[in-house]
Each structure stands twice: as structure tokens, then as C-alpha cells.
User: Fold this.
Amino acid sequence: MMRNIHELFKYESLNTPLHNIDPRSKLATIFIYLVLTIILGDITHLLIILIIILVQLAVGRALRKFAKGLLTLTPFLVLILILNYLSLGSVSASLVPVFRFLLFLAIMDLFFLTTDPDDFALTLESLRLPLTVSLSFSLALRFIPTMAEQVNEIVEAQLSRGLKLDQGNFFARIKKYIPILIPIIILSIKRSIEVAESLEIRGVDPSIKRVHYVALKLSTKDIIYFIINLAIVVVVYLISGYISSDSLITLLHFSKI
Amino acid sequence: MIVVENLYFTYGSQGDYVLKDINLEIGEGELLAIMGDNGAGKTTLVKHFNGLLKPTLGHVYVDDIDTRDVPVSELSRKVGMIFQYPEKMFFSERVWDEVAFALRNFGYDESSISRLVQKILNIFWLWKYRDSSPFILSGGEQRRLAIASVLVWNPKYIVMDEPTAGQDAVQREILLQIINMMVSQGKTVILVTHDVEFVAEIRPRVILMSNGEVMYDGEATRLFRNPDILENAGLTQPILFKLESRLRNLGLIEEGFNTIDEAAKKIVSLLGGKHL
Ligand SMILES: Nc1ncnc2c1ncn2[C@@H]1O[C@H](COP(=O)(O)OP(=O)(O)OP(=O)(O)O)[C@@H](O)[C@H]1O
Ligand SMILES: [Mg+2]
Assistant:
């Protein structure tokens, strides 16, 4: 599983309606969804939001990657569930944090799997963040796939030298990660020196105001996209005041009679 | 013997195969070069030999063991894999520990470990560095150390992915010696490379790949006399064979030559044996 982890973060340049939405509009959209995720405390409502996000992921052809990511994180989700169950003592209450986490992932994927890292940098700059911040952020993002490929290579090299990652007790296992972690740290340091040098060579200077060759432009569809999502968020929020899982269960109960 | 049977492989699930219907037999003690352009699937193919990748369709057998049935750690004892830029995988404080790493993983006892490590470090002219950090070695020494840290457990099959990448002429020469040594010990050596000049010096059996398919499987010399197949796989003729083609096209020679010495003799005789 660990070996394909980099695939999950890789932005793919596809031509879907979601890829064509302005990143600022998407950023605002995921922001309101994130706020809603934090406010809502009921599985039913979280589920509604999740479905809406999943539909959007499907439109952006990112559903498969999201699903794969989920598979990798399943043990983690189970852990959240168990810990919450132990402290709350109720399955449905412990499902809420699990769903929040799921939603959080889905919302992040909605943005990052459909937004070109370069456009993301432009977005950050258009938010008037200093160049050092926006550049560092987008470079970091860009390096996730390369880094992950490196991890992959090093894991494969050490496996080929007989390293068995899944044997021994807890501490023995942690020790086994040393032959993987050290090369990665060394490579990252080398890489960051290279990047710093190449930025300097290309005359990147945070004190100079930059103009861009490609400019972001908000169009009507970007605004419509945001407004529709805002409407969904508002509606779900309003509904959440009236219908909860409990009332739904009561409703189902009555309909049976 | 390594046997590849109707091997298809895809990294994703969309079904666009990176390897398409590969069939091969690699005999014991054979010296083999897998060549081809970037993205041809060479690395993907060799990763099947020690089980890092498992076939999507078809089979890979190493000494009659289906690679699907055993873990990488077991196949690796037979198949030593030296990756492209293998010095990336160093992590030990001492050269000695870097070489001993695999032996410890394979459960050798301490006395065998010291014996084997000492032996291999001597063969690779690295004994004097045994207590140094691997990171202070020169590029060539690091490459040698990486190779030593695999050869130390004496695998029967040895795969080297782009061994000449980033190495100078002296290191290439040393590499040639190492390869000759392994072959003389009866090991099966599989080289993955774009380096036609390097292959021209060792003249192994060549498997030429392009687009996930085998385009040619046979003698290096015959392949090098066929610029069209080479070009289709993104390679050019080695300089010796370019010269031969030119002379042939000029109608100056009929028979070809196989070595630089033969070429020199031929040219001298064309000049009528005269000194210029
Ligand atoms: N981990 C991976 N995930 C997805 N696709 C991959 C992965 N590794 C390689 N590929 C793809 O598989 C194809 C074959 O790659 P491979 O590395 O086997 O080629 P190669 O012949 O070794 O090339 P090179 O000469 O550049 O090393 C390429 O199209 C490559 O993009
Ligand atoms: Mg390769």
C-alpha cells in the first residue's frame, strides 16, 4: 500500500468542468464546506454533504483517487472509531468524527486533485500573501509527488536488500524504518539546496513586484459554481436545525406503523 | 533460469499496459543487456525478477519458482538488484555496516558477516574505507560500494539498472572488469542500459524494448549492424559500427569488422599499408 501512496496526491491535468473552475472560486467553496463540516454534528447531515462532495469529485474524475486514499487510511479511520467508541460509548456518536475526517479528506481532494499547483500559487499571491509564503507553499505541493516517488524507490531498494518491514514487535518495526528515513532526509536536504540555488539563478527576488504571464480571471461560471455551493451549504445548514437523525428515525418508525 | 511467460503489466487499473506480452528465457551464466528508449519498460520488467512487481497477467519464474508465490525478501537472495543511482539508498554511518545490512536482514551469523564483508570490500578496493562514512566517498567509490553491498550475499542473478549513468571513463572501465568477474564466476548478469558504447564493448545478448514490447532478442553485433531497428527504439549505432556503415556505403569494404583493432587493420590496408 505504502508503495503507491504518491499516486494519491498527484494532480492530473484533465479537462473536466471542475478543473476549469477558477481556483479562487474553488478555494472559497471548500472553505464554506469545511466550516459546515465543523458546525454539523449529525451523521445524516454530514452524509448529505459527503454525497454532494463525492458527486463533485466524480465530475472532476478524482473519485477513484479519493477512494484509493481512503483505502490507505482505513486503519486510521478504524482507530478514530474505536477511540471515540471507548470514550463516548455509542456507535452513532463515534461515527461523527469518522465522517468529519472523511469529509475533510474529500473536501481537500476536491481542491487539490483538480487544481494545478501553478494556479494554486497564483491564487495565494492574489490573496496578497508574500511571495516567500506562496512560493514555498506551492513548491512544497509540487514536490509531494517527486518526494513520494523517491520514497517508493528507496523502499524498493531496501526491500531488495532483504529488509522486512512487517516483522518483529512494535519497536523492532519502528527501527526498520531507519534505512528508509535516513536516505529520504538526505535526499530532501539535497533537493532543497538545489531548489534554492535554481531559484536564485532564475532571479527570484521577493522584494520585487512580479507580473504574471498567465493571469487568473473570474468568469460567470466560477461565480455560479460558488453560488450553487453556497446555496447548498445554506440549505443543509437550515435543514440541520429541523431534521436530525433522531427525528428521521422517528419518522421511519411512524411510516412503518 | 528466469522464465517470463506472456507477461503483461500495468501500474494503474485502466489497462494501458506498460509491458505487453513479454516472453523470455534467461539462462544460467548468461550475460544480457536490456536496451531501449526512456519509458520503454526496462525497469518495470526487471522489477519483476525479484518480485517487487507482480505480473498483471502471465508469469515470471525464477528457478521454477513463481514470483507471485514468494516475498521479495526471499527472491532477493537469488536475484540481486542494483538500482539506478544505487548510492541513494545509503543510510549507515560506516561503509562496513552498509555492506553488512543485507546479510543481517538475511540472518547470517556474525562470523560469516565479517568474513563476507571483508572479502567483498577487498575485492572492490574499499577495505581502507571500512570505518568511513559512505557519504564522504567519491561518486565512483559510492557506486562500487552500492554494487558491493549487493554482491556480498552472492546472489545467483544480478540485475544492474543503468550502471554507467553518471560515471566517468575510469569507472566504466572498472565496471567492465566487475561485470567480467561476475560472468567468470558463472553468475547471470542482466544489464539495463541505453549506453550503446558500453554494450559494444561487452557484446552480450541484447533484448531491445520499445513501448513495452520486445523488438529484438539476439546478438549485439547483429543488432548494431541494423540502424533501423536501433533508431525505432531511440538508440544509435556505436561509433565503430557507424564507421563500418560509412565505409561500406562508400564501397570501400565488403566484410565488416568486430573490434577496434580489426577496424584499424582494415583502414591501414585500405591505405595500402602506407604510413601517412
Ligand atoms: N511507479 C509508477 N507508476 C506509474 N507509472 C509508472 C511507474 N513507474 C514507471 N511508470 C511508467 O511506466 C512506463 C515504463 O517505465 P520504466 O521506468 O519501466 O521505463 P524504462 O525503460 O526503465 O525507462 P528509463 O530508460 O527512463 O529508465 C513509463 O511510461 C513510466 O511513466
Ligand atoms: Mg529505467
Notes: Chain A touches chain B at residues 150, 153-154, 156-164, 178-180, 182-183, 186-187 (CB under 8 Å).
